[in-house]
Design a protein that fits this description.
The chain is an alpha+beta fold and about 100 residues long. The chain has helices at about 5-15, 85-105; strands at about 20-35, 40-55.
């Protein structure tokens, strides 16, 4: 309670994958709704995606994460992605590619 969304993203990134990040830009906000067999809402998540810059730490997995690795932007869609991240990536593919090229320069 009382934690700002941006602060939660920074904390969760550190806890889940060991990286210290700073938020650069809010990229997208959308609803992820899962229905049960009767068509009633089972889960409703509000997903907030930030562009973030890594400023420290080492990539690793927390106990509830199966794998963490760096993947070239062109190979992201070959990975086993969550439905919500796949939708985000498809929507923002062009902008993410531009940001990746800027980072490599």
């Amino acid at each position: 309670m009382g934690e700002k969304v941006q602060d939660a993203m920074v904390r969760e990134t550190r806890e889940e994958v060991g990286l210290d990040v700073e938020a650069v830009k809010l990229m997208d906000v959308f609803d992820s709704v899962t229905l049960d067999k009767q068509g009633r809402i089972k889960y409703h998540f509000v997903v907030v995606n930030f562009l973030a810059r890594v400023v420290g730490g080492n990539l690793r997995t927390a106990s509830d994460i199966l794998e963490a690795r760096w993947v070239p932007v062109g190979e992201v869609e070959k990975c086993n992605l969550t439905k919500s991240f796949r939708a985000f990536f498809e929507k923002h593919r062009e902008r993410i590619g531009e940001l990746a090229l800027t980072r490599e320069e």
